[in-house]
Amino acid sequence: MTLKNFRTFFNKELEGLYPQTEADTFFFFLIEEYLGFQRIDLTMKPGFEISIEKQELFHESIVRLKNEEPIQYILGYTEFYGLPFKVNTNTLIPRPETEELVEWILSEINKGSEVSILDIGTGTGCIPITLSKYLPKATVSAIDVSDGALKIANENAALNNVSVDFIQKDILKTDELKEYDIIVSNPPYVRNLEKVEIKNNVLENEPHLALFVDDNNPLIFYNKIADLAKKSLTKKGLLFFEINQYLGKETVGMLKEKGFKNIELCKDLFGNDRMIKASL
After folding, report:
1. Do residues 156 and 85 touch, judged by C-beta distance below 8 A?
2. Per-residue pLDDT tens for 39-48?
3. Strand 83-86 to strand 77-80: parallel, antiparallel, or no bridges (unpaired)?
4. Total-model pTM
5. Residue 137 has pLDDT above 90, yes or no
6. What is the pLDDT of residues 194-208, one digit of tens each?
7. CB 163 within 8 A of CB 132
8. How does pLDDT run across 212-243, given as a tens digit for each residue?
9. Res 98: pLDDT
10. Which of 57, 108, 148, 162 would give a disulfide with 90, using CB separation of 3.0 to 4.6 Å?
């Protein structure tokens, strides 16, 4: 089958499941992955004959897309802040909003500073790895409870040629931390009542351990991390959170009650309350 004909087949198979623009994006990702082609090749090489072996890979991807599996899991990787990251079902897929959180942190730190940074609930390691990449003199550590996530995070550190100290630890069962200049966390924050807002490709594939919290205690991780940060942040240290867009005021109020100061609540690119910075 030719490249042009296969694109027609691909779009027909996904018709009704995804918008046309999204289906096209999937196709371009897949021809780059399986054929080493760019978008321009669709115009330049429409008659290219796709081998049976490669067609089988495309067909497998179509089946997975029909099951609403994220394209990032199908490819096995994604991009975050311009860097490559491996992903699998043990990790959340890094989001653009988290890139904004990283950008905020980087804007607060001099590139040549010898700061110590801790990321709590690291997943793919996208936050600490990116910070380590752009702050070469920083000492960066990260915590996660999941063995599978830490395996991927270590692979991603090697992939991006940075050094991050990954630690397996349940933060809710942790009584103290070492001293750090920066503590950052994007912990689970989606309440069960908000599941109706979550798309199936996320709900059915991404790890619930990293997503959801009990409706009756949605700030459980923020409370715990704030308590630990009070004891472990240095004098001029900063605490950064990615937060539930519906709980901005509540999270700010909790931090005020614990004695944090200079609290800033920042919106994301979609206009939602998404990030907080605070100091002691």
Report:
1. yes
2. 888 888 889 9
3. antiparallel
4. 0.92
5. yes
6. 877 887 777 777 788
7. yes
8. 888 889 999 999 999 999 999 999 999 999 99
9. 96
10. 148
Residue with tokens 């001099």: 110
Residues forming beta bridges with residue 83, ordered by sequence position: 80
How far CA 88 is from CA of 91, 160, 237, 247, in Å, comes to 6, 17, 33, 29
The one-letter amino acid at 254: M
Output the CA torsion sign for 127, 130, 134, 137. positive
Q: 86-111 burial, b for 16+ CB within 10 Å, e for fewer?
A: bbbebbbbbbebbbbbbebbeeebee
CB 33 within 8 A of CB 61: no
CA distance 268 to 201: 22
Q: Identity (one letter) of the amino acid at 136?
A: P
